[in-house]
Amino acid sequence: MDKKITFEEALKKLESIVKELESGQLSLENSVSKYNEGIELATFCNLELKNAEVIVVKMMNQEQLVDFQVKEEE
Amino acid sequence: MERTYLTVTALNRYLKFKFDNDAQLQSILLKAEVSNFKRHSRGHLYLTLKDESSQISAVMFATQTKSLLFTPKDGSKVIIQGYISVYEPYGTYQVYITKMSEDGIGDLYQAFELLKASLEKEGLFSESRKKSVPLFPKAIGVITSPTGAAIRDVIQVIGRRYPLTKIIVYPALVQGVDAKYSIVNQINKANKDMLVDTLIVGRGGGSIEDLWAFNEEIVARAIANSEIPIISAVGHETDFTIADFVADLRAATPSQAAEFAVPDQATLYLQIEQLKQKATLSVNNELVNLRKQLNKIKSSIVFIEPSRLFQTNEMKIDHLIDRLNRTSPKNLLLQKEEEVKAYRNRLQLSFKQQLKIRESEFLRHIEKLELVNPLSIMKKGFSIVKMQNKIIDTVLNVHINDEVRIQLIDGQFTCLVNKIEKGES
């Protein structure tokens, strides 16, 4: 699978594959290959969510992106 | 007995104790005019508050000045919240200001309503201008104070719901007289950078003065002109600002803005699982269907009794022959012959009828003729009188001694006239 695909694209593709499968318009060979692709996409989506455990937060400081830490208000 | 003398310090401490324990003095509202205004290098403000006949000194510490919406100067009419206490080193009492705004805050509300009405008329609040916020943002810009509660809440909520995205904080002043410029600058900067596809603009709760920057026209216009969709998140549920009306989406609080900005991963896991199940189910169904179809085909009559295959065709051939027969020229000829026969019959029939009619007419005429036949009249005893073969029908034509012939039905005789009488017989 293409490594550059985003979570959103993968989820959308998965949705359209399920729709195609449910339409019952595919040949048997096509169904099986689409099904395999769908399962791969689902696995990819799950992994993407699992791997992104901590959100990246930056701050735009003048023209520079710097790491940002939450500070309690004084 | 020796008298007890107080020290000055003790006296002032006692006075301070008295002031600080007086509920009335600990929370005062004051209306006054500013004079002797001084801003200390460390940010504290020193001033005198006065009216026509009296005055009192006052101080506002730098930490409190952040909420100021205006720059006080000598002559400013102000309203103040604060308390009275004693400054021990000098033995003076003064007003410690916690909040100060220009007198005539009512005018601010009026300005708010006016601006709201004029922007609404201009169409800045219309639904058709509003951009939709992306469902799966790649990066979210947050324009707010980097030290406030708002940014902390936003990071916490987005981090929990959808850590796949990124957050870029665009630090801005969110209260005070310069806040509006700061917010506008950061909205414009984010649109120039184009690093994010959703913007959250806002701050946590506060007084109406604290939130005032979000009621400024330049902030409203910057939000309206933003290419990037903006979620407004100002104050608490009950706070409505101009920014909320212009924004593409209004959230009641910064936390809610964060919820609007991203999907929830718990829901996403569930959605992915459901899609997987649907895919499996539909492929399974398809296999079951195909198997059924195969079984149906295998048990089809043509496999069990192949002759059926031809039977249909046999019948088809019969039908075709029938149709062919119906349209052959022989049939057409027979049909035409029948037609001719029918015409002939009709012709004969009508001729006979005509004949009958003529015959009966003829008989009727004969009967009429019979009625006027002279012979049949003579049978009843009438006779014909003739002279020189002319029929005599008047006495004027006969004279005495004329010879007339009388004709009867069975013969004739001759007479001599010996008398003539005129008149009716």
Note down, in words, how this protein is organized.
The complex is a heterodimer of chains A (74) and B (425). With 74 residues, chain A is of the alpha+beta class. Chain A has one domain (7-67). Chain A has helices spanning 7-23, 28-51; strands at residues 56-61, 64-67. In chain A, strands 1-2 form a two-stranded antiparallel sheet. The termini of chain A are far apart. In chain B, helix 6 runs parallel beside helix 7. Chain B has helices at residues 8-20, 23-26, 62-65, 105-122, 149-161, 179-193, 217-225, 242-246, 254-261, 265-298, 301-304, 308-326, 329-372, 374-379; strands at 28-39, 45-50, 55-60, 77-87, 92-102, 139-144, 166-171, 198-203, 230-234, 249-251, 384-387, 390-391, 403-408, 411-416. In chain B, strand 1 and strand 2 (45-50) form a beta hairpin. Among the domains of chain B are: 8-103, OB fold (Dihydrolipoamide Acetyltransferase, E2P) (Beta Barrel); 123-263, Succinyl-CoA synthetase domains (Rossmann fold), CATH 3.40.50.261; 377-416, no CATH class. By secondary structure, chain B is α/β, with parallel strands linked by helices. The chains are: A alpha+beta (74), B alpha/beta (425). Strand 1 (56-61) of chain A pairs parallel with strand 7 of chain B, so a sheet runs across the interface.
